[in-house]
Amino acid sequence: MSAYLESITKGLLRLNSDETSFGRKEGDYTFPDDKLMSTVHFRVIFKGDKYFVEDLSSKNGTKLNGGKIDYDREYLLVPGGIIEAGDQTFKLVTTKK
Known about the structure:
The protein has a single domain (2-95), classed as Tumour Suppressor Smad4 (Sandwich), CATH 2.60.200.20. The radius of gyration is 12 Å and the shape is globular. The mean pLDDT is 95. By secondary structure, it is an all-beta fold. 28% of the residues are buried. The N and C termini lie close together (5 Å). The strands form two sheets. The protein has a six-stranded antiparallel sheet, with no helix packed on it. It is 0% helix and 52% strand. The protein has strands at residues 2-7, 11-14, 19-23, 29-30, 42-47, 50-55, 62-64, 67-68, 74-77, 82-85, 88-95.
């Protein structure tokens, strides 16, 4: 199975096999023009056959399906799930290979 976060500004962003991080200045994918995104904002983790999202103590927080999540805690991310961080919105997309 392949997985991506679909971003309005950057298109499909392929997720790594274990974890993928997102931030303004650091991470696998960066958004340098987004002033509301922290240096390293959140990550998506793959464990077994499930995906999880974790806020990495960001200043402005991360939302999952419209609700703010606590930092340093993993939340289940299902296909179609929406992550909001800074001014960015992402949707989990999975494909069977």
